[in-house]
Write a structure and sequence with these properties.
The complex is a heterodimer of chains A (383) and B (309). With 383 residues, chain A is an alpha+beta fold. Chain A contains nine helices and 20 strands. Helices cover 70% and strands 3% of the residues of chain B. Chain B is built from 13 helices and two strands, in the order αββαααααααααααα. The chains are: A alpha+beta (383), B mainly alpha (309).
Chain lengths: 383, 309
């Protein structure tokens, strides 16, 4: 519980949780490296909070073990585990002052002189002058920081954060994301962060585990997950993806050639999550911001070797830094395209015939045997 | 934002029409208050004033009473009946403590552990109210009857030896002893303890228990440092709702006690209805009221629950 003994990764081995016949978490193996900022990302009900609560000891796993470093803590009650939690709605003790809230963990461990430590911790979260207030006298963002301070002061091996920013408005959330990231860098403790907000997970975490239906769909660095999703769920849940159903024409070389509605597209074989076979089917994905738009009349100006798809602009919305287009195309009914507002082309209006083009390197391939819309609605809810 | 309004002489040619609620609307709160105020005026304030005047009258039923500002009645009543006063406070206090000890675990169980049985248990808590107070107290007379099964069991386990030694019972009897009166008071006022306790326990966010556990508090420490302090509003209102009526009660002492267990309520009742010494009865009532008021005020001050609610 002190800096000296702090050490070791969090290891979950075959951990699962059933409630009657419902399986909240399927057997799961996960190693969270010491000192990392790890995010469990998923829609509500995907098992991410249950996983977190099993690490905290608030939920007993049906199978499997939890190790902190070399120590098996599976059977330990929460008050004996060197982990602390920042709860979803903070769960600050309403009858205690901010000072006493932060000192709570220290006092329970029999530490007498808490004043200095509590004051330092309140300074870290910039709440020094609020020590004598009661929680209800503080704003949401301040309460959130008290919750972080109350957990961090115990120097846990792992800090667990259960949707800690969910109750804050957007602007404050952005600010607190940076704040938490700063604190994590400063104290160097392992943070495990549960969230349904993909942007939050990507901004803060070194490693993100995307969970769906009680399983981890994919695990990796944010950029890796974004650029190389391995399932349609990850492709749709993390940002937006255009997924085109296509038939594989040629899969021999480094590049795979596919066709959709008569349009040939190329993509690197290395970026396919499934081994493509000639004659088989593949879902071809490309992110909206990778695509460029030109009016159909200027098709000739597009450099050779780029993937080209015809279409007609169905809708466009101006959102300041960029314009988002929805393009109706034979390959896919609603292709999304984000164009930076550097030089606006007046001809790109709804109804205009256009050509979409992008670098084949920016294309990824997914197994066509999946639900193409997995993870789509949940993105709207999370945003 | 300036709190002061614009100066009244400011020219306001195109001032928008000010929507003031009509007189009718503004009177609505007073109309709603009226029945309650009238009721309290007729059945509380007037009798109180009448009692106050009675307490400083002298005379007799035959010659009639008249106000002579005879405040000595208060002093005389207190000097004569202070044992009953102290006994009332002692019995009521003991019953309140017993109610708290019995009621807290039950309220805790209903609030946190009962699950789908919660509503049924709550109904059971108030079920005694479906029969009359008097009938239930008379039933206790049968339960505690000499030679009955309850007394036999208490006797055989040696409980009565302990209570006899403490002066709460005499020999093999429970009826007509202080123990019987305190038991009756405890039984009759228990729901008034449980319901406020339940209400304040039920309001406690279960995540606070988890948070305390997460912060190294054992279940016992969690109760001591989090649950119990947060249930203080319930403890305070429960003890008040039990203690205040119990200290003025006379039915339990009348039916379950003896002349040695008379409480101040019994004295007041007999002064009114048997001895017909109205001034003493009225003075005793006011002394009881004042004593309870003072004790309650000190108690609330010390319990310091203002921050919690």
């Amino acid at each position: 519980m002190t800096d000296k003994t702090a050490g070791g990764d969090v290891r979950l081995a075959g951990i699962s949780k059933h409630y009657g016949t419902f399986t909240a978490v399927h057997p799961l193996d996960l190693t969270i490296p010491q000192g990392s900022f790890f995010a469990l990302l998923g829609a509500s009900g995907c098992g991410k909070t249950t996983t977190l609560r099993m690490i905290a000891g608030l939920e007993e796993p049906s199978t499997g073990t939890v190790h902190l470093g070399d120590r098996d803590v599976t059977q330990l009650p929460p008050y004996k585990r060197p982990v602390n939690t920042v709860f979803q709605s903070y769960a600050l003790f309403p009858h205690l002052s901010i000072f006493e809230n932060v000192a709570f963990g220290l006092r329970r461990r029999g530490i007498k002189s808490v004043k200095k430590q509590v004051e330092d911790m309140l300074e870290l979260v910039e709440l020094g002058q609020f020590a004598q207030r009661k929680p209800h006298q503080l704003s949401g963002g301040q309460q959130q920081r008290v919750a972080v301070a109350r957990a961090l002061i115990n120097h846990p091996q792992v800090l667990l954060l259960d949707e800690p920013l969910g109750a804050l408005d957007l602007k404050l959330r952005r600010q607190m994301q940076l704040e938490l990231k700063r604190i994590q860098t400063e104290v160097g403790i392992t943070f495990v962060h549960v969230t349904h907000d993909q942007e939050e997970a990507m901004t803060m975490a070194d490693t993100v585990a995307v969970m769906n239906g009680g399983r981890v769909e994919q695990l990796g660095a944010p950029a890796e997950l974004y650029e190389n999703p391995r399932t349609t769920f990850v492709a749709n849940f993390l940002g937006t993806s255009n997924l085109i159903e296509a038939e594989v024409l040629e899969a021999g070389g480094d590049d795979v050639t596919v066709a959709s509605a008569g349009t040939k597209l190329r993509l690197p074989r290395a970026r396919c999550s499934t081994a493509p076979k000639a004659g088989g089917r593949l879902l071809v994905g490309v992110r909206p911001e990778k695509i460029s738009l030109v009016p159909a009349a200027e098709e000739g100006s597009v450099a050779a070797g780029r993937n080209k798809v015809p279409g007609r602009i169905a809708d466009s919305s101006f959102i300041g830094v960029s314009t988002q287009f929805v393009v109706d195309s034979p390959v896919c009914p609603e292709l999304e395209v984000y164009v930076q507002n550097i030089e606006r082309d007046d001809r790109l209006v709804p109804g205009a015939e256009v050509v979409l083009h992008w670098n084949p390197e920016h294309t990824f391939g997914l197994d066509a045997a999946q639900d193409i819309d997995a993870g789509v609605e949940t993105v709207e809810e999370g945003a | 934002m300036t709190a002061t309004a614009a100066p009244p002489e400011a020219p306001a040619p195109a001032e928008p029409p000010v929507h003031r609620p009509s007189l009718r609307k503004r009177l609505v709160p007073y109309w709603l208050l009226l029945p309650g105020i009238l009721w309290l005026l007729v059945f509380f304030v007037l009798p109180m004033a009448y009692q106050a005047s009675t307490s400083v009258q002298t005379g007799s039923l035959e010659e009639g009473f008249e106000v002579t500002w005879h405040f000595r009645t208060y002093w005389d009543a207190l000097a004569e009946y202070y044992p009953q006063f102290l006994r009332s406070l002692l019995y009521a206090g003991t019953a309140t403590l017993l109610c708290l000890l019995l009621g807290y675990p039950l309220a805790y169980l209903i609030a946190f552990k009962a699950g789908r049985w919660r509503n049924l248990l709550l109904v059971l808590v108030i079920a005694p109210f479906f029969t009359s107070f008097l009938i239930r107290t008379l039933a206790w007379k049968t339960i505690l009857a000499d030679g009955g099964p309850v007394v036999a069991v208490l006797n055989s386990v040696g409980f009565l030896d302990v209570t006899s030694w403490l002066g709460l019972t005499q020999g093999e009897r429970v009826l007509a002893t202080p123990l019987a009166v305190v038991c009756g008071l405890t039984y009759n006022f228990l729901p008034f303890m449980i319901l406020p306790l339940y209400t304040s326990l039920e309001r406690i966010d279960a995540r606070l228990h988890e948070a305390a556990g997460d912060l190294y508090a054992t279940p016992a420490t969690t109760f001591r440092k989090v649950t119990f302090p947060l249930s203080m509003p319930g403890v305070v209102s429960g003890t008040l709702l039990t203690f205040i009526p119990a200290s003025g009660d006379y039915v339990n002492a009348e039916l379950l006690g003896s002349t040695d267990t008379r409480m101040i309520g019994n004295v007041i009742q007999s002064q009114y209805l048997r001895i017909l010494d109205y001034p003493t009865a009225a003075a005793l009532s006011f002394i009881l009221m004042a004593a309870v008021l003072v004790m309650v005020t000190i108690y609330i001050r010390r319990a310091g629950t203002e921050d919690l609610v």
